[in-house]
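Suppose you are handed a protein chain with no further information: no name, no annotation, nothing but its sequence. What can you learn? This example shows the usual starting point.
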Amino acid sequence: MTQKYGIPAVLSFFLPGLGQIVKGEVGKGILIFIGFWISVAMFAILIGFVTTPILYVWQIMDAYNKEVK
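A reasonable first move is to predict its three-dimensional structure. Written in structure tokens, the prediction is:
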């Protein structure tokens, strides 16, 4: 049984990409996880200050809103 709304969003809040994995979108979840940590690493060149919050909020909203077919 896949979860549709709140639980995946909460899981994504604590670990980016985990909500997508719980919903069955394993590849997407892994890409979000890797992308998030690359974005965090980019804090050294300042672009991470822009990309990390955007990616973080987007992936939580995606885990909450998107239904799995």
